[in-house]
Amino acid sequence: MYAELNQGLIDFLKASPTPFHATATLAQRLEAAGFEPLDERQPWNCEAGGRYYVTRNDSSLIAFKLGQRLPLDGGLRLVGAHTDSPCLRVKPQPELQRQGFLQLGVEVYGGALLAPWFDRDLSLAGRVTFRRDGKVESQLIDFREPIAVIPNLAIHLNREANQGWPINAQNELPPILAQVASDEPYDFRALLAEQLNREHGLSPDVILDFELSFYDTQSAAVIGLDGQFIAGARLDNLLSCYAGLEALLAAGDEESCVLVCTDHEEVGSTSACGADGPFLEQVLQRALPAGEDFVRIIQRSLLVSADNAHAVHPNYADRHDGNHGPKLNAGPVIKINSNQRYATTSETAGFFRHLCLANEVPVQSFVTRSDMGCGSTIGPITASRLGVPTVDIGLPTFAMHSIRELAGSQDLTHLVKVLTAFYSSAELA
């Protein structure tokens, strides 16, 4: 089972270089499994036993199954994750021509580790909006092939490189796409029009706008002497999206289950389609009874906020609390923070720990060092907006927010197993 799930994750990562592509890939899998797409602009008629999904902004998705048991009796089992990852986004007027090279200006999205972006084979993907035959349309594109690179400065010209140096995002990160013979202005939008034609057979009248990200073309892979690791881009947090999808598809039909995969977590989640926006609440209000019954359902429910955790690194073990150093391949991690950077309580942690023990899934705990700051997740945001009891968990990883992250090759199976059990659990307390 390890190999099958890991290969599925690798395929999912390859198909999902941006949140737009991740959402489209999730939607394809859901439709193939019999989930009905819902349009937020149209009336809904959600019935017991029904399977549905809805997207917003093409970059966030909520899928849900209404179980045979009424939500008012059994509550909801929610798994939350996010579709976005730190990256380099192309600026609106990106063309740069310097020293005979064509480059594109980029903006850093989220808290990216910048140094690993140098000397990588980069491609470009995202959403393009254009006018065709008098109508405004949007389409996803993915160049797939490596078309750009950000070369390092040779150590001969930067003798302090190995002592560390601040990377200037404005000056040092524009990728090189080509060598150009003249100073004649380059039209980046013409390149996008060519790609739309090549990829989709479309001939736009004019490119109106775009949301495009560079990404590393190196495929994710199972690595290590004994194949104990999985390395790849966007493990934070497409790994959790994939695990949640697999669990939802494997779960029974008795209970009501929800998978929430929202955009913009890496920049605070404050958007129409982010966890700090109204998306989840509005979807649940349309799918569930109103008024007092809605509140009763939420208070009978539980959200598992699934986002990667920091594994203890053998070269930097002192960055962890001595009693809380999660290991790779040792199971999901319950994340705790008394300052509410995580939404875990003793009751929600206790339930998740019980679920792991009952299903023979190893489980670990994480708290940050008391002299270090702590990151956060969609857990506290969703809990505060919806009032739903929440536990923050995640799989242990190295190099979070790098262009290439590392996780344990056995841990995905552990996570899918416990999330499947959660979706099928008759009791939530």
Commentary on this structure:
- The chain has 429 residues and is an alpha/beta fold.
- It has two domains: 2-85 and 233-424, Zn peptidases (Aminopeptidase, 3-Layer(aba) Sandwich), CATH 3.40.630.10; 87-216, Aminopeptidase i, Domain 2 (Roll).
- The chain is built from eleven helices and 20 strands.
- The protein has helices at 2-15, 19-32, 71-74, 169-172, 188-200, 235-250, 279-287, 292-299, 346-358, 378-386, 411-424; strands spanning 36-37, 51-56, 60-65, 76-82, 87-98, 101-109, 122-132, 135-142, 176-179, 206-216, 221-223, 229-232, 256-262, 302-306, 309-310, 333-335, 364-366, 390-394, 396-398, 405-408.
- It has a nine-stranded mixed β-sheet with strand order 1-2-3-13-4-14-18-16-17, sandwiched between helices. Strands 8-7-10-5-6-9 form a six-stranded antiparallel β-sheet. Strands 11-12-20-19-15 form a five-stranded mixed β-sheet, with helices on one face.
- β19 (396-398) and β20 (405-408) form a beta hairpin.
- α6 (235-250) crosses α11 (411-424).
- The longest helix has 16 residues, at 235-250.
- The chain is globular.
- The two termini are 29 Å apart.
- The relative contact order is 0.18.
- The model has no long low-confidence stretch (mean pLDDT 96).
Supply the key terms:
single chain; 429 residues; alpha/beta; Aminopeptidase; Aminopeptidase i, Domain 2; 6-stranded antiparallel β-sheet; globular; aminopeptidase activity; aminopeptidase; metalloprotease
